[in-house]
Target: SIS domain-containing protein
Amino acid sequence: MSHVAYELGTQPECWERAAELAPAHRALLPRPGERTAIVGCGTSYYMAQAAAALREEMGQGETDAFPASEFPLHRRYDRVVALTRSGTTTEVLDLLAGLRDTGVRTTAVIGDPATPVMTLADELVVLDFADERSVVQTRFATTALTLLRAHFGLHTPSVVADARTALAEPLPELASSRGQFTFLGRGWSVGLAHEAALKMREAALSWSESYPAMEYRHGPISVSGPDTLTWSLGETPAGLAEQVRATGGQWVAGRLDPLAELVRVHRLAIAVAAHRGLDPDQPRNLTRSVILTAGEEAVR
Model:
């Protein structure tokens, strides 16, 4: 079994632990009314998007999400939350260093505390039980989001039950043989759709795209056809399933909690990799953490 396959299968237990930990970390996470930015890179950025949308939907305060490299230093926030599995990613460390002595509280949600981030963030939330050996992120990212969902009052045991269902039920028929994959979301699940597409690219080298569901008819559906699969990770707009099927493409409507639907996509990525003879533990051109040299930082 690959590292990533093992780790994606442990997500329900990790989510339970994160939800149990959330009350103890209440003071370290965004308080109602705080103007907050949540940042990350790659997968963590997409989790930040989902968390920001959820917090605003709950009316807990203005919340933005940014890639760490694109954070607008001219804006004023009460708190910045950095999601970082490794604690070594250059862009995250640079941002936290730049926010020191500015009066902005910084919290890092991390998998490995014995890393440079521990000296740069004001506060740490350690999810070391969800850390991973794999390059491709699964359980750390979804566990970090679960921690924030629980903090916002939006986690229930049914989410964990749905994750177990996602691990046990068969994947959509013929899904692993498709050549193109599109993932759709609405509201907070748009970030999950972006993460689903990223997983298909990372683990399976697949042509994959992601969009807000209502935007799919504004151009992207033009490339749908018999070799495509379109998967909705949230509420499905009326009539869209029929329009996708009319192109000859396969339609998959998410029935579970959107985060549990992402677990199904994790499984699909592994299945597509196997179908193509790829090793998901050896993703092409990727490393577990992006650490830039001084020269690379200067020209990015």
User: Anything to note?
Assistant: Residues 178 and 227 are 5 Å apart (CA to CA). The mean pLDDT is 92.
